[in-house]
Amino acid sequence: MSSKRGTFGLVIGGLFGVSSIVLWTLYVNRIVKTAHVSEGVNHWVNLARDEAYGLCYDGCSDCLDVESIGKACRMTASVNISGVVCNASKMWTWADRYPLECLIAVGEIFKADALWWKRFWLRALYLLNVGSVLFFVLGCWVAEGTLAVCDSFNLAKPRLVQRRRSNSRTPLLNPGVILLLAIAFLPPVAAYRCMYMNPAQNQLFANADDSLYGVIHGWLSDCYDGTYSCGESCSTSDGKSTCGAIWCSQPRINRPPSYYVNSAARRVQNCDFRLVDAVPGMVDKRIANPRIEGRLWVKVSVNRFNGSEGVLQQVQCLYDMINIPGLMEL
User: Fold this and answer.
1) Interval 268-319: pLDDT, tens
2) Which of 23, 121, 160, 253 is found 20 to 30 A from 184 (Cα to Cα)?
3) What is the pTM of this model?
4) With contact defined as beta carbons under 8 Å apart, do 327 and 270 qualify?
C-alpha cells in the first residue's frame, strides 16, 4: 500500500510541477516579447544630446570614469546616415554640432539599449520556476494524504542511531600566523585613479598675442592602497599568549593632479603657447579629444576654435598633442 501511495504521489507531484513550469514559462515569454519602453522620441533625442554628443564635446565635470567620454564619441561614430556626418569627433568645431537626424539615430541606440536591459531583468522571472519544486512537494503531500486511510497510524518507530563522538581536536593555526599568510599571498598593490585626495590644479596658457588662450585643468590623482600597522591582536593557547600586528590600508597618493597638469603643459608649449598667470576672457570650449582625459588625465579648454580660415592651427595642434613625437606617452 505504501509503495502505491508513493508512486501515486510522485505522479501527481510531477504533474503539478511540470504544469506550473509550462504555464509560468509561457507567461514570461509573453511579457518578454511584448516588453517596450514608454518614453517618447523627445526623451531619447535629449538623452543623445546630453549623454552622447554633449559628453563627447564638453567632457565630464571632474568625473572618475573618463573612459565614458571616449565611449560617447564612439557611439556617435557608429551612426551611418547617407549624406549626413554624425561623428562628433569630426564636428566638434562646427557651429551646428547637433544635427537632428543624428540625435534621432543615436537616441534609437539608447532606446534599444534600455529595452535590452528591461527584457534582461524580465527574463530573470524564469528563475521562479524553482517554485515548481514546491508544487511537486505539495502534489506529493496531497496524494499521500488521500491514500493514507487505514495505516495512517502504523508509522515505523524512528531508529536511534548512536554516533561515536570523536575526542580528537583539530589544531587551529594561530590568528597571527593566519594574518601573516594572508598578507604574504595578497596580490601586488595596483595603482588606480582617485579624486579629492588633492585639490584640483589649473594652468593657464596663451599664444603670442593673447588672441587664443586656455586652461589645463587637472583633478585626478594616481593612488594606491598603502598598508600600515593599526593595532595588535593577541590570542591565548595552552596558557601562552601570542600577539601579532593588525594591518590596515588607506589610499595614498603616488602622483597628484599637479603632476599631470605639468606633463600636459609641456605638450601645450609645443603648440607655441606660453604659460601665463591670467587670461583676458572666458575659457569655455573644450578640446574634444577624449584621449587627452583618458591618457593625460587633464582637460584642455580654449576661448575659441575658429578663425577667418576655419579651425585655428594651434587649436588643431592641441587636439593632436597626444601624439606629438618625442614626448613620453602616459
Assistant:
1) 999 999 999 999 999 999 999 999 999 999 999 999 999 988 999 999 999 9
2) 253
3) 0.69
4) yes
